[in-house]
Amino acid sequence: MVTKRDYYEVLGVAWDASEQEVKRAYRRMAMKHHPDRNPDDATSEEKFKEAREAAEVLMDSHKRGAYDQFGHAGLEGQGFGGFGSIVKAFFGDIFSGGGGRGRSQVQRGSDLKYILDLDLEEAVRGTNPKIKTPTQVECHECRGSGAKKGTAPTVCVQCVGMGQVNARLGFFSIQQACPRCRGAGKMIAEPCRKCRGHGRVEQQKTLSVEVPPGVDTGDRIRFSGEGEAGANGGPAGDLYVQVNVRAHAIFTRKGKNLYCEVPVNLVDAVLGGEFQVPTLDGLINLKIPEEFRSGKLLRLRGKGVNVTQDRGGGIGDLYCRVVMEPPVKAGLVMSALAMTALVISALVITALIITGLVITVLSIIA
Ligand SMILES: [Zn+2]
Ligand SMILES: [Zn+2]
Q: What is the mean pLDDT of residues 165-190?
């Protein structure tokens, strides 16, 4: 079974590398291994191709997402994963960390990433969701050999099971994947019907994730050995569950502190009443501060997020920005009030004058 190197490893970039970082890493590799700069050097050419393929996937958010979740299997049918390209992709591997290992030897599976979307409340209090992740498991039908039930793979006659052959390139003798068995070291005359000779099948797996209280976007929980299955009995990769906290309608979180805005009615502010402040535990009533002004930041101690020691520990605070209702609207309300008051007082005065006149007239008559 031939497997590909991890794309992140190929380009030497981190899991969360930005598109810019991927582009930079690719440019660096391309400059170094470009066929024009290394004529007649098959190793460089293949390294160049390998880097180009990795960059093509990692710079395309759709393909990258599929790769992160499903590994190389996620890209099958997207122009990758053909055997020809796999063999070529491995051609250049002999100068890398692998140190010329036979391709038929054990290979660790790729690490996978799962994005876990959480509400702020869940992230703050901790949660225990069940997630479904696709995984490649050994095919039961052929027990991973890839050969039809009742048959067994035969040792490749060209490389006698080594998976690699020596090739001469000018002065150099380099090892390359065996063209006959494509680096597997064995040949399958009749492939297994269930796994079509891959030796592995895809399966859904349910995992229970223990999310501790206080996590934030970007936090990762590692599940050792829950990633892509290894090849030829190699160990599985790891699964990284990466937390993504959804935006909250009211609160913004910065570290262990929470921030929110509370609109306060101008009339309430003038009268010095109470107003309601939202917290993660529900609404609480607060007295409007004496020197009230719009934009004043109120601090509610201990109403933030309880974070773990590696984030500094302790409970954060909630900061509430009190915002007076927009002045234009308030102004309109005021002028309407003033107008009403004016009209009413005018009416009262008129009534008083008329009453006074009537009384005067009556007293004159009397
Ligand atoms: Zn099978
Ligand atoms: Zn062979």
A: 83
- Which residues are found with C-beta within 5 Å of the ion, ligand 2? 156, 158-159, 178, 180-181
Range of the domain at 278: 252-325
Please report which ligand is nearest the Cα atom of 199. Answer: 1
Q: What dihedral do alpha carbons 287, 291, 292, 296 form, nearest 10°?
A: -100
Of the listed ranges 80-89, 244-253, 317-326, the least confidently predicted one is 80-89
Distance in Å, CA 141 to ligand 2 centroid:
24
- pLDDT surpasses 80 at 143: yes
87 CA to middle of ligand 2, Å? 12
Residue 335 token pair? 């002028």
Distance from Cα 146 to the centre of ligand 1, integer Å: 5
User: What is the secondary structure of 238-285 as a DSSP string?
Assistant: -EEEEEEEPPPSS-EEETTEEEEEEEE-HHHHHHT-EEEEEETTEEEE
Q: What is the CA radius of gyration of the chain?
A: 36
- 299 located within any domain: yes
What is the arrangement of strands in the sheet containing 296-300, beginning at the earlier edge strand? 252-254, 257-264, 318-324, 296-300
Q: What is the CATH number of the domain that holds 6?
A: 1.10.287.110
| Separation of CA 346 and ligand 1 centre (Å) | 96
The rounded Å distance from CA 3 to ligand 1 centre is 16
Nearest CA-CA partner of 122 in 219, 231, 16: 219
Region 118-138: mean pLDDT is 90
Q: Separation of 103 CA from ligand 2 center, angstroms?
A: 10
- Which residues share a beta bridge with 260? 320
